C-alpha cells in the first residue's frame, strides 16, 4: 500500500486524480480502512503493532496528499499568472471622446458669466405661441416689424420662435418681485425663414437677457455688456451702443464691439469702421411689462439678445455659419 500509494500521489498531475487517490487510500472503503478492519483477524499480540503501523501510514499518506495538493495549486497559480501577464508598458487603445459643440461651448461660457453676476438661466419652448413671440413683445397683428422676422408657422397661433425674446414675457409673468429683482438669461435655438448662405441660417442661437428692478438705467446695460465682452474675449475689447429700433425696447440700441480681425483699426471684415455689430438691446418697453402683469410705473430695466453663432464665427475666424450645422466632424473636432 505504502509504495504504490506514495508513487501514485507523486505522479498525480491534477486535483481530480489526487481526490480519487485520497478516496481509494484513506476513504471509508479505502485500502487503509480495509487493512484496519482486517486487524481483528490477527493474533492479539500483533494487533497493536499493525494498528499503529497502519495509523502512521494513514498520516503519512494524508500529509503527502496535502503537500502534493499545495504543489499543484501553486503550479496552477503560476501558470495563470504567466498566461494573464499584462505588459503595462504597451500603448493603450485610445477611446474616442466627444466634446460639446463649439456653439454650446460659447453658450456655456455666457451662462457662466451671468450666473456669476447672480442671474438665473431659463430655457423655453422652441415651438412657441404666437402670443408670446409677437403680441406680448409689443408686436400686435399687422405690425410692420413682424416682417423683420420671417416666420415658420406651425398653425395660425403656433410658430417656431423667431427670437428668444418671448422668454422675457414668460420670465416676467412668473417672477415674484416681492422676492427681489428679475435677472435672467435664456439661451436657445431660434428659427427664421431665411435662405441659407454664409451669413444666414434658418436655424441659429440666441441668448436672451433681462434685468428688471427699480432704478435700472442704460448705464447698467452698458456695464453689463462690457463685463460679458471682457470675460468672453479679453479686456481690450470695447463696447459701443448705437441707436436702433425694436418694438419691445425703448430706447433701443445695437451694440458693437472692437473688430477682432483688425483690432479696431478698420478692415474688410468691419467695413473699415473698426467695429463689429454683435447684439440688439434696450430698455424694456412699458407695454411689455404691462402685458406681463408688471407695474411699469415702479419697475423697469434692460434686455438684450446676443448671437453665440456670430461670437463663434468672430472668435475662431469661421466665415460660413452653415459649417456649425453640417455635423462635419473634420470641422467640429477642431474645437475640442
Ligand atoms: N430679439 C431681438 C432680435 O432677435 C434682439 C433683442 C433682444 C433686441 C432684446 C432688444 C432686446 O434681433
Automatic annotation (TrEMBL):
Provide the Gene Ontology terms for cellular component. Answer: cytoplasm
Q: Which SUPFAM superfamilies match?
A: Class II aaRS and biotin synthetases, tRNA-binding arm
A Pfam match: tRNA-synt_2d
Which free-text remark accompanies the cofactor?
Binds 2 magnesium ions per tetramer.
Q: Which GO terms describe its biological process?
A: phenylalanyl-tRNA aminoacylation
Uppermost EC category: ligase
Q: What is this protein called?
A: Phenylalanine--tRNA ligase alpha subunit
Amino acid at each position: 500500500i505504502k509504495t504504490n500509494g506514495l508513487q501514485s500521489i507523486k505522479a498525480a498531475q491534477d486535483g481530480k486524480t489526487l481526490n480519487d487517490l485520497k478516496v481509494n487510500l484513506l476513504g471509508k472503503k479505502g485500502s487503509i480502512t480495509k487493512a484496519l478492519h482486517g486487524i481483528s483477524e490477527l493474533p492479539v499480540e500483533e494487533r497493536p503493532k499493525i494498528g499503529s503501523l497502519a495509523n502512521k501510514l494513514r498520516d503519512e499518506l494524508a500529509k503527502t496528499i496535502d503537500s502534493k495538493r499545495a504543489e499543484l495549486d501553486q503550479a496552477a497559480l503560476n501558470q495563470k499568472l504567466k498566461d494573464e501577464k499584462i505588459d503595462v508598458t504597451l500603448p493603450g487603445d485610445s477611446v474616442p471622446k466627444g466634446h460639446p459643440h463649439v456653439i454650446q461651448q460659447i453658450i456655456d461660457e455666457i451662462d457662466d458669466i451671468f450666473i456669476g453676476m447672480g442671474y438665473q438661466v431659463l430655457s423655453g419652448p422652441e415651438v412657441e405661441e404666437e402670443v408670446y413671440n409677437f403680441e406680448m413683445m409689443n408686436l400686435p397683428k399687422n405690425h410692420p416689424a413682424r416682417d423683420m422676422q420671417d416666420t415658420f408657422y406651425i398653425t395660425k397661433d403656433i410658430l417656431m420662435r423667431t427670437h428668444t425674446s418671448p422668454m422675457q414675457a414668460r420670465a416676467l409673468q412668473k417672477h415674484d418681485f416681492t422676492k427681489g429683482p428679475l435677472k435672467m438669461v435664456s439661451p436657445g435655438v431660434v428659427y427664421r425663414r431665411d435662405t441659407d448662405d454664409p451669413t444666414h441660417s434658418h436655424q441659429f442661437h440666441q441668448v436672451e437677457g433681462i434685468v428688471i428692478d427699480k432704478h435700472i438705467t442704460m448705464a447698467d446695460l452698458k456695464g453689463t455688456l462690457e463685463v460679458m465682452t471682457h470675460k468672453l474675449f479679453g479686456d481690450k475689447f470695447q463696447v459701443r451702443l448705437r441707436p436702433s429700433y425694436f418694438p419691445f425696447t425703448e430706447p433701443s440700441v445695437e451694440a458693437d464691439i472692437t473688430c477682432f480681425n483688425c483690432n479696431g483699426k478698420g478692415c474688410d471684415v468691419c467695413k473699415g469702421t473698426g467695429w463689429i455689430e454683435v447684439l440688439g438691446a434696450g430698455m424694456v418697453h412699458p407695454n411689455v411689462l404691462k402685458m406681463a402683469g408688471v407695474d411699469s410705473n415702479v419697475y423697469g430695466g434692460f434686455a438684450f439678445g446676443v448671437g453665440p453663432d456670430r461670437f463663434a464665427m468672430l472668435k475662431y475666424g469661421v466665415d460660413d455659419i452653415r459649417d456649425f450645422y453640417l455635423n462635419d466632424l473634420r470641422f467640429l473636432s477642431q474645437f475640442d
